[in-house]
């Protein structure tokens, strides 16, 4: 997700009524899941937020699970663009810092719920949401794998110590991102999350470290 108060999908012009605008309805579903979580969000919650009837919801998006997965994909953005942002960063350090800073900003937007949809929407571990959790874990896993490869590239180029563990370091970044989501849901302000991002990056291994 971009480092802005609103996801790119929310910056839209006024168009047709919501009931006839699939993209706008999906945005509202995304915000509803983001705010309440996957399991506790009911079909009534969704139809009210989206401005559609239940038959229209099912006909257009399928069941609740498929609607959530589409909303999660909208939130996460294009996976190729995410990968390019990491690959094209000047360094793995810059890529990781952009991820952490972007998360701090996105999690504290004025027009969106606090925290991360991918973290908060699947907090429950019941059997009903396990397949949804697996899909979200796959999104996070791809991000972690891409960052890990970027770190390994810097290690191979001599820009980071040979002792660096790319898998552990990429996992650390994702863990901090997820932890920041929890803190944002608890009411942490943007400045506090930015400070956490700065502290995390202060531990980043540099060339010349042992």
Could you explain how this protein is built, in words?
With 210 residues, the chain is mostly helical. It has two domains: 10-74, Arc Repressor Mutant, subunit A, CATH 1.10.10; 77-202, Tetracycline Repressor, domain 2 (Orthogonal Bundle), CATH 1.10.357. Helix content is 63%, strand content 0%. The chain starts with 21 loop residues before the first helix and ends in an 8-residue tail after the last helix.
Global geometry: elongated
Based on DSSP secondary structure assignment, what is the total number of beta strands? Answer: 0
How much of the sequence lies in strands comes to under 5%
Helix content range of the residues, please? 55-70%
In the CATH scheme, the class of the largest domain would be: Mainly Alpha
| Count of individual helical segments | 10
Low-confidence segments: 8-19
Alpha carbon gap, first and last residue = 34 Å
**CATH homologous superfamily title of the largest domain:** Tetracycline Repressor, domain 2
The structure class reads: mainly alpha
CATH topology of the largest domain: Tetracycline Repressor, domain 2
SSE string: HHHHHHHHHH
Taking all residues together, what is the mean pLDDT?
Answer: 87
CATH architecture assignment name of the largest domain: Orthogonal Bundle
* Total domain units: 2
Please tell me how large the radius of gyration is: 18 Å
Tell me the major beta sheet. none
């Amino acid at each position: 997700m971009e480092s802005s108060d609103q996801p790119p999908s929310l910056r839209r012009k006024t168009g047709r009524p919501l009931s006839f605008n699939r993209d706008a309805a999906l945005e509202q579903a995304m915000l509803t899941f983001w705010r309440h979580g996957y399991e506790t969000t009911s079909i009534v919650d969704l139809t009210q937020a989206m401005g559609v009837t239940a038959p229209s919801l099912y006909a257009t998006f399928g069941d609740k699970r498929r609607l959530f997965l589409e909303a999660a994909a909208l939130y996460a953005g294009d996976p190729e663009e995410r990968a390019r942002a990491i690959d094209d960063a000047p360094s793995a350090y810059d890529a990781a810092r952009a991820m952490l800073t972007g998360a701090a900003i996105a999690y504290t937007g004025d027009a969106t719920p606090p925290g991360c949809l991918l973290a908060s929407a699947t907090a429950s571990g019941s059997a009903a949401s396990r397949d949804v959790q697996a899909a979200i874990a796959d999104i996070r896993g791809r991000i972690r794998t891409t960052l890990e490869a970027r770190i390994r590239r810097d290690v191979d180029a001599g820009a980071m110590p040979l002792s660096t563990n790319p898998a552990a370091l990429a996992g650390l970044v994702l863990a901090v991102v997820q932890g920041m989501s929890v803190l944002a849901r608890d009411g942490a302000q943007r400045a506090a999350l930015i400070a956490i991002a700065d502290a995390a990056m202060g531990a980043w291994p540099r060339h010349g470290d042992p």
